[in-house]
Amino acid sequence: MSRPMNRRQDNHKISRELFVLTYGALVAQLCKDYEKDEDVNKYLDRMGYDIGIRLIEDFLARSAMRKCRSYSETVDVIAQVAFKMYLGITPSVSCSNTTENEFFLMLDNNPLVDFVEELPPGRSSLCYCNLLCGVIRGALEMVHLAAEVTFVQDRLKGDDVTEIGITFPKRLEVKKHKRNK
């Protein structure tokens, strides 16, 4: 008996839809548990951070990535490899300053909001997808890169695009190793 070739893709899609629906239920429950949006945002960020510090091992093992030499290379890997691997999307990347330590990921399609049309009433400061910021921050910290990760724009709040800002507070030092003779 043979299996259809596209069965794995169907399972991936079902898993993604299940994750998105489960995430929506989680955010809805957090909104019931916490009165303030800031508390929900902090909880989602912390949850994402915990996921990120564990997810980086899987990412490094599955992607066989080499060490990035610059912040821009790091952000490109996040956008082109990690987002594609785990969410099936590839955000575009832009750098906003000359010191090359501040970047923006523009998500044309955010799979976490596939079944969400708008924020709950009275929750205008809720950052629905704040989990993503925590995941990125946690994963970067595990490879010894401190970063501030925030949502700059969000389609759920009426913006034209969903945009995540990543700022590296320290200038990246490229160490040159001396060869032993």
From TrEMBL:
Localization per record: Endoplasmic reticulum; Golgi apparatus, cis-Golgi network
Superkingdom of this protein's organism: Eukaryota
Gene Ontology CC: one annotated term: TRAPP complex
Xref: SUPFAM superfamilies: Ligand-binding domain in the NO signalling and Golgi transport
Xref: InterPro entries: Bet3, NO_sig/Golgi_transp_ligand-bd, TRAPP_component
CDD domains (alphabetical): TRAPPC3_bet3 (cd14942)
The entry's keywords: Endoplasmic reticulum, ER-Golgi transport, Golgi apparatus, Lipoprotein, Palmitate, Transport
Gene Ontology biological-process annotations: Golgi vesicle transport
Pfam families per the UniProt record, alphabetical: TRAPP
Gene3D superfamilies linked to this entry: Trafficking protein particle complex subunit 3
Keyword Chloroplast in record: no
Function: May play a role in vesicular transport from endoplasmic reticulum to Golgi.
Family, as annotated: Belongs to the TRAPP small subunits family. BET3 subfamily.
Subunit (UniProt): Homodimer. Component of the multisubunit TRAPP (transport protein particle) complex, which includes at least TRAPPC2, TRAPPC2L, TRAPPC3, TRAPPC3L, TRAPPC4, TRAPPC5, TRAPPC8, TRAPPC9, TRAPPC10, TRAPPC11 and TRAPPC12.
Protein name listed in UniProt: Trafficking protein particle complex subunit
